[in-house]
Request: fold
Amino acid sequence: MRPPSAIHHERLPNGLTVLMVPRPGGVVTVDAWIGAGSAGETPELNGVSHFLEHMLFKGAGRYGPGEIDRVVEGVGGMMNAGTSHDFTHCYVTAASENFPVALDVIAAVIENAALDPDELVRERQVILEEYARKQDDPHGVLWETLYDRAFAAGPYKASVLGVPESLEAIGRAEMLDYYRRHYAPKNVALLIVGDTEPPRALEAVGAALGGFHRPFRPLVARDGAETTYSGPVETVLEKDVNETYGVMAFPVPALKDYAAAYALDVLQFLLGCGDASLLYQEIKEKRRLATSIQAGCGSSRYPDLFHVYYTCDEAKRPDLEKAALEQIDRVAQEPPAPQALERARRLLVNAHAFSLETTNGESASIGYYYTITGATRFERDYMGEIANVSAERVQEQAQRCLKPEAMTRVAVRPKRAGSRARRSSA
Amino acid sequence: MIDVRAHTLPNGCKILLRPTPDKAILSMVAAVRWGARDDPADQAGLSHLMARLLTKGTASRTAFEIAQTLESVGGDIEAFCGQDFLGLETQTVETDWRIALDVLTDCLFHPSFTAEEFDKERSLIQAEIRRAEDDKFSFTYRRLECLFYRGHLYGTPAEGEVETVASLDHESIRALHAAIARPESIVLVVVGNVPDEEFLAAIAMTWPAGPVRPAGPVRPAGSPPERDQAVRRRLEPEQAPGAGRGETVVLTKEVEQAFVVLGYPAERPGLPESAALRLACGVLGEGMSARLFSRLRDRDHLAYAVGSSLVGRELASHLFLYIGTNPATVEIARDRMRREAENLADEPPDDAELERARQYMLGRYLIGRQTNAALARSMATTEIWGLGWEWGEHFPERIKAVAADQVVSAARRYLTNPATAVLVPSPG
Reply:
């Protein structure tokens, strides 16, 4: 696989980081990554990062409500935003000749969001609907319950979406204060990936955001030391679903130790990514205990979770969990076979390379890891480092992290008294 | 000028090679001119199950070996089956093209269809259907499609229903494969860099010589009108699409949020009004400044999710509108959405609104075609539809050529009397 392009890494005098990757293709993504996620919220303001993200495009600077949508879509641009535990990001992707429009909108949004009081009241209803929708979705319930139960305390226990009580209590004053504290040049990385020339792009960024000054004053001071886990713990919820959706999760350290993080990513692929992975073969193919199974690993600023996610017939859940633990134990007991290790490494390297195929994908990859680590090295070295992860390093992480005595299990199962969704015609 | 090399081999297979000089990713799509719509009425889901079994073992490889061979070079292979065609798709790095082609060929022409894999895959598909019904959108949309296309060849979901899949038999799978896995009914699209001569030589060496048989159950591969006639012969008059228009199916589930989907007929790709209707769909519900989003969500706060989409199908397309709303406002939301569709003809978009929709679509088009996989799928689809691989390349011109009065007339003709599926919380 070809190595990824070099990043043009710049910093404006006001502290704003600018990361540029020029590439052909006629498309450009302008993507602002802000270190503002649910991990930095107080319980009273739980959900404010995500609520604020919804408000960003509802008017900013010279753009009135609804105008950003019209302007961006009017030039064929696509905008979107996302919020998680550690970050908020918002981006515009457009044909490269519309780079000035994309930059102007993103600059307005990060410096001068209007947070219009009427829009805020209306958007709160939209978020409460999103909350309702999440309760209807077995995955939504599963992941929210997992993070709540797995952590006894710490930055990731609370939900990104917030809860109705906190959402009702967030008014304009609270949101504006949160915005001004976090949307500050030193806490923002601006990504420009696509068909642009870095010197000219940088000049445009300087013109748009050179006068942006605001101190970064995080609402909550954290060092990650406050994380404690509850495991071993098991929670089973009943819902109107046809299959069981379950997860088994284990504590993993924060993404500070790069070597450990690379090895954990390989472990994740070895165990549960791809049809030839250990869990897929043993649990789904050979023993037919799961109808789907995969592994994943959180690479985050603070200690997070490694998980095995599955769907199954409820009657098979106990055997499935037992068999999954046997596979996990095997990896902890003996280093992976060369063929299995090579498969995991190659698949992971290519998955990363393929994720960079779009401008959005590349800016998300660089932006995410920059926000977590404060540097571009982890992401740009990724493919080379993964190729060097040894069997011993993978085994070491399995021993260190995947301990049954620290495991959290959550399952969303069908209701006991036959509950298939009913159909009727009218 | 787009560099695509089209080859029709002596065995009848059509191969399209599209290099991407600045990228190392290789996407291949092998599309077989046969889809779920061709399943016998009492064997719904047969083609889908057959397609899924292609990667589950061949004469020389087990399911594990298929996965391991590709994954050990960081690639993958996946089967698909839609209403109009089925096939296989691979993704690898360009230097591994031989491995990808070898596995693809093996799966396409030499599947073993063992009893064990048949049994396993059948129950996995049933589980997938059950899970799809756990998702509000797929649950409601699946039922909408069945209602809208009732009596039509598209009247059953491609993967079948839990009950129809249960009754599928192993022997029918073998028979179907023998009938359709023939080079002359396959289009192979390759997006990425391969050495043309060597690639074609490898195919000539490993793919069956043909045409194997002239007729059989395979759909004729000729021009769209010829194929149309052939298909029409199989359609009874009452099988026109849209039999369920004007009707409503009400679904219940323990949910906090209601969901409504409206289905309208749409001109199929290639016909004169299809671009105008595509634009009507954009004005109505594509993007955050489209009517549905800006009015029903941003102005009236009736929804979290609302929008529209046009689903192209070879025989009969459809356009659908959807809204996720509070159960208390489900009737209002449904009426308002329906009125927005009907009002499009009476409240035509002005130049600015039309231009917004046009630009939005052109932007999405450009952004959506950034990956080799997306290009390969698009080329295979329009090639199978008989429109030629270039069809997708000319999307911008078609959209730019549509005038406001054409949008109005397309809306007047199509956007009335929808089929409706409503999901509401179950009582008690």
In short: Chain B is about 45% helix and 15% strand.
